[in-house]
Write a structure and sequence with these properties.
Layout lengths: L2 H18 L6 E6 L2 E7 L2 H4 L6 H9 L4 H4 L2 E7 L3 H10 L3 E6 L7 H6 L3 E4 L3 H13 L1 H7 L9
Helix pairs in contact: 1-7, 7-8
């Protein structure tokens, strides 16, 4: 298995963990020089969090890093990153994002590319199938996660 496939598999494993916990199956890993330094999955449901998307959880679990480390990282994520997660990639200068799938949700790939971030689509069928299964099972939670106004609580 190629190294980049191993990292996408690690992100997928995180997504599966989130699904098994009753959460939204989006996982991510932050890789620096061939080593995973942070891994995480969407914990919005589990933690009642407004910000713990998979990418944010992976960054949080990587801990505070010097800017020089972020500028040498690759972020692997199972789903196209939303505006919040894309903004964080830009804020910390992460130069490359590898996306498992973008058919379930198209995030801010064009914004990332316009700002010089290399965006690569892995077209990982497992990521797509897991997300489709979740959307079919829990459409209201999915709509809430992507910010559809009619699905927001209150």
């Amino acid at each position: 298995m190629k190294q980049e496939d191993m990292f996408m598999q690690a992100a997928y494993d995180e997504a599966l963990k989130g699904y098994q916990e009753g959460g939204i199956p989006i996982g991510s890993v932050l890789v620096h020089k061939g080593v995973i330094i942070g891994r995480g999955h969407n914990r919005r449901v589990q933690n009642g969090s407004v910000v713990l998307h998979g990418e944010m959880d992976a960054l949080e679990n990587a801990g505070r890093q010097p800017a020089s480390v972020y500028r040498e990282c690759i972020l692997y994520t199972t789903l196209s990153p939303c505006p919040m997660c894309s903004g964080t990639v830009l804020l910390y200068g992460i130069p490359k994002v590898v996306i498992g799938e973008n058919r379930s949700f198209m995030g801010e790939e064009a914004l990332l590319q316009s700002r010089g971030v290399q965006v690569e689509l892995a077209e990982h069928e497992g990521c797509y199938n897991l997300m489709q299964q979740f959307i079919a099972e829990k459409p209201s939670i999915w709509k809430e996660d992507i910010g559809e106004p009619d699905a927001l609580p209150g």
